[in-house]
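Exercise 7.
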Amino acid sequence: MKITLVKKILADGSPCRKCADVIDKLESSGQMQRINEVLIADERDPSSEGMVLAKTLDVDRAPFFVVEQNGEQSVYTVYMKFVKEVLEQETEEADELKEIMDNNDLDFL
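Solution. The predicted structure, written as tokens, is:
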């Protein structure tokens, strides 16, 4: 299994707030070691790897995860769903619902 995380850099050069939050969660839980590749979707550069991948996969928000396994590709734009389904770790339903409700906090590409 290969896991790619795509995080966004805003036009002013700063990381998107939601991307930074997800990376903090990954690092504090020890899950970051399961991420094989981190790509940058840079608003200042439409040809950045993350922007190209987002366009190819028709993903319009960041951060997102691309999971490749057995020749299949899955895209996750909800961190808690990714943790539960891919990393197979327990999540609280309340946390999942909160993240879905806070989806407007995600940065659009």
